[in-house]
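Catalogue entry: protein
Contents: sequence, fold tokens
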Amino acid sequence: MSLANVLLVDDESEFVETFSERLTMRNLEILKAFSGEEALQVLEAHQDIEIVILDVKMPGMDGIETLAEIKKRYPLIEVIMLSGHADVESAIEGMKQGAFDYLMKPCDMDQIIAKVTEAAARKRQHEEKIIQARIKEITSRHA
């Protein structure tokens, strides 16, 4: 079983291909998207995605707009923003809008694996709490 199901979103196709290969070698299940719009389509089609690694700067729908839409549609999915040095303000804005964390490009592989592992654990904890709350609600109705 993989560590997590991850959607990698960046408009630089060479980066996406190389980075997804490296992440796959680290036991992550990777899906790819090359724009914010495509990311939303992939999320719609793959309900098992837990983490989105999302570039801040993309043409069209940028990372911040994409983050807002992901959080609106899929509030439990954790999003890790990827930022170049000039995009730190955007990354901070992403944190304010619910991103799990942000990392600077180029990313250290061990650091990104650690962040993905933390984010997946947090998502699973939230899901478990929701399940427990639902069980409690159902069992209290029948008591």
In short: Strands lie at 5-9, 29-33, 51-55, 78-83, 101-104. The chain is about 55% helix and 15% strand. Residues 109-141 form the longest helix (33 residues).
